[in-house]
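Title: Comparing notes on inverse folding

I've been comparing how different people in this forum approach sequence design from structure. To keep things fair, I'm posting one structure and asking everyone to reply with a full sequence. Here's the target:
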C-alpha cells in the first residue's frame, strides 16, 4: 500500500506539468522554466516506474513467502485428510487452489486493488479543478462500481458451476490415467470418454455463458468510460468558454479522470478472476482448518508396543454406516495376532486404525498406552511398520522407497531389505537398489512391489508391524521369504498384526481375531479360532507350528 501511495502521488506530476506548461511556460516563453519542469517530470516518472517495479517484486516475494508457510502444511493436510471426519481428499486439488490464489495475489489484478483506494484522491483533485468536473468523476466511479456488482451477480452462479464441473473432470481424468491398463484391456475407452465429456461439456457451457456476459459487460464499461471522458472534455470546454477554468485544466481533468477510473474499470473486468482466486483461498483455508498442525512430540518408552482398542466405532468419511462397531481388544507387546473375516468385514479398517492412518469415530486406539491421536507422525513412524493392501510405492528408486524417502545410510536400507528377505531379489534388478520405479511401483511385478513394500515397513526396526494381505501377490518363493521374515520378527519381540484371506501367514500367529460385518465375532488362540473358520483348508494350519 505504501508503494501504491508513492506511485499514485507521483502520477500527479503529469497533470501538474501540463498545467504549468500552459499557464507559465507558453505565456512567458521561458526556455529555462521548460527545461526545469521537464527535468522535474522526468525524475518523478522514473521514481514512479521504479516504485511500481518494486511493489510488483514485493507482491511476488510475499506470494512466495505465503507458499513457503502454507505449502508444507497443506501437503500434510492433504495426506492427513483420511484422519478427518469428512470424506478423504483423493487428489491434490487444494494445492492447485493454493497456486491459483498465490498467482492472483502476485499478479496485476492484486495491484489494482491497491490502486483503487487512491481513486478518491484523483476525484478530489477533479473537484479542485471545478465541482462540476468532480461530480462527473464521482458519477462515473459510482457507475463502474454498480457494474461490478451486476457483473458478479450475472456470472457468480455460472462460474461456480463451471469450477465444480472442471474439478470433477480433472478428478475423473486422473482416475482414468491411473487405471489405464484395465481400460485398454476391456475396451472401456469410448464409454469413459463419454462419461468424462459430460462434465467437460458442462464446464464449457457454463464458462462460455459467463464469458459471453462478461464480454458484453466489458464492452459496455469501455463505452461508458469513453462517454465519460467525452463529457469531461465537453464540460471542460464549456467552463473554459465561460471563464471558470483555464484551457489546460481540460486536459489535466481528462488525465485525472482516466487514472481515477482505470483501477475501477480493471477491477470490474477482472473481478470474476479475483473472486475465483479468493474462493480457491477459502478452499485452502477449509482444508487447513480441518487438519490443524500437529502438537509437540510426546515421548513414550520405545520398548512398549502394546495395542489397545476401547469401544472403537469407525465410520469412513463417505459412508453412512459404521465399518467397525464397538470393538474392544488388547494386543500385548511382542504378541503376533492374525485378523480374518469375509470381504467387507472391516479388516483393513482395523489395520488402518491401529497404525493411525485413520482416527476412530468413537472410542480410543492406543499404542504403548498413549492414544494414537496424541502421537506425532515422526514419533509414530519410529514405532510402526505398515504394509497396506495397495502397497503404494512412489516414483523414485527402490532405495528411496525402502528408506521412506528419508536421509539415511545405505546400511539401514540393506538391513531392512535383508530382514524382509528381499535383498537378493533387488540385486538381481538391472540397477539394484538404484532401480527407478514409477507411480505405484510401475516397472515391478505385483509380487516384487509387495516385497519391497515389506522392506519399507521393516525399515528402522519398528516395534509394531501391521501387514494387510502381505502375501496377496506372492509366489512360492515370496511366501517362503515372508515366512522366514515373520519367524525372525517374532524372535525379536516385535508386535505383529496380520490381516489375511489366505491362511498361510496364520501358521505363525499366537492368536486370531475374526471380524464379521464390522463386529468382533471370535477372539482366541489360533487353533481354537481357525477350527471355527468356515473353510476347507484350515486343517493343516490348525496344527501347532
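Reply #1:
Here's my take.
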Amino acid at each position: 500500500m505504501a508503494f501504491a501511495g508513492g506511485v499514485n502521488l507521483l502520477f500527479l506530476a503529469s497533470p501538474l506539468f501540463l498545467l504549468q506548461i500552459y499557464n507559465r511556460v507558453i505565456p512567458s516563453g521561458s526556455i529555462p522554466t521548460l527545461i526545469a519542469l521537464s527535468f522535474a517530470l522526468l525524475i518523478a516518472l522514473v521514481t514512479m516506474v521504479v516504485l511500481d517495479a518494486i511493489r510488483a517484486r514485493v507482491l511476488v516475494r510475499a506470494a512466495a513467502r505465503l507458499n513457503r508457510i502454507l505449502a508444507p502444511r497443506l501437503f500434510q493436510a492433504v495426506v492427513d485428510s483420511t484422519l478427518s471426519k469428512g470424506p478423504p481428499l483423493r487428489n491434490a486439488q487444494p494445492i492447485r487452489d493454493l497456486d491459483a490464489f498465490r498467482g492472483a495475489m502476485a499478479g496485476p489484478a492484486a495491484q489494482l486493488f491497491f490502486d483503487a483506494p487512491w481513486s478518491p484522491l484523483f476525484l478530489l483533485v477533479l473537484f479542485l479543478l471545478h465541482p462540476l468536473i468532480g461530480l462527473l468523476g464521482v458519477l462515473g466511479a459510482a457507475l463502474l462500481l454498480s457494474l461490478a456488482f451486476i457483473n458478479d451477480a450475472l456470472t457468480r452462479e455460472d462460474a461456480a458451476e463451471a469450477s465444480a464441473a472442471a474439478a470433477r473432470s480433472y478428478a475423473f481424468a486422473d482416475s482414468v490415467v491411473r487405471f489405464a491398463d484395465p481400460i485398454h484391456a476391456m475396451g472401456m475407452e469410448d464409454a469413459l470418454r463419454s462419461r468424462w465429456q459430460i462434465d467437460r461439456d458442462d464446464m464449457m457451457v457454463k464458462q462460455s455463458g459467463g464469458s459471453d456476459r462478461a464480454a458484453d459487460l466489458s464492452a459496455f464499461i469501455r463505452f461508458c468510460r469513453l462517454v465519460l471522458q467525452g463529457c469531461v472534455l465537453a464540460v471542460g470546454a464549456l467552463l473554459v468558454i465561460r471563464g471558470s477554468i483555464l484551457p489546460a485544466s481540460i486536459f489535466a481533468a481528462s488525465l485525472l479522470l482516466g487514472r481515477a477510473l482505470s483501477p475501477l474499470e480493471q477491477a470490474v473486468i477482472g473481478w470474476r478472476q479475483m473472486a475465483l482466486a479468493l474462493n480457491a483461498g477459502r478452499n485452502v483455508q477449509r482444508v487447513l482448518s480441518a487438519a490443524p498442525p500437529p502438537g509437540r512430540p510426546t515421548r513414550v518408552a520405545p520398548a512398549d508396543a502394546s495395542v489397545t482398542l476401547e469401544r472403537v466405532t469407525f465410520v469412513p468419511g463417505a459412508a453412512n454406516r459404521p465399518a467397525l462397531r464397538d470393538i474392544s481388544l488388547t494386543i500385548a507387546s511382542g504378541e503376533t495376532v492374525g485378523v480374518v473375516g469375509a470381504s467387507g468385514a472391516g479388516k483393513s479398517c482395523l489395520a488402518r486404525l491401529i497404525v493411525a492412518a485413520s482416527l476412530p469415530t468413537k472410542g480410543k486406539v492406543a499404542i504403548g498406552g498413549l492414544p494414537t491421536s496424541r502421537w506425532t507422525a515422526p514419533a509414530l513412524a519410529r514405532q510402526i511398520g505398515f504394509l497396506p493392501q495397495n502397497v503404494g510405492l512412489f516414483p523414485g528408486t527402490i532405495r528411496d522407497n525402502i528408506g521412506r524417502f528419508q536421509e539415511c545410510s545405505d546400511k539401514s536400507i540393506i538391513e531392512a531389505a535383508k530382514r524382509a528377505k528381499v535383498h537378493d531379489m533387488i540385486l538381481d534388478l538391472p540397477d539394484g537398489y538404484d532401480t527407478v520405479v514409477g507411480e505405484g511401483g510401475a516397472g515391478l511385478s505385483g509380487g516384487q512391489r509387495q516385497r519391497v513394500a515389506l522392506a519399507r515397513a521393516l525399515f528402522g526396526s519398528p516395534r509394531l508391524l501391521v501387514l494387510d494381505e502381505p502375501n496377496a501377490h506372492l509366489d512360492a518363493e515370496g511366501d517362503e521369504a515372508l515366512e522366514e521374515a515373520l519367524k525372525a520378527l517374532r524372535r525379536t519381540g516385535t508386535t505383529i498384526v496380520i490381516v489375511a484371506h489366505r491362511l498361510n501367514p496364520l501358521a505363525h500367529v499366537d492368536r486370531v481375531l475374526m471380524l464379521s460385518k464390522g463386529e468382533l465375532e471370535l477372539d482366541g488362540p489360533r487353533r481354537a479360532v481357525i477350527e471355527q473358520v468356515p473353510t476347507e483348508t484350515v486343517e493343516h494350519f490348525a496344527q501347532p507350528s
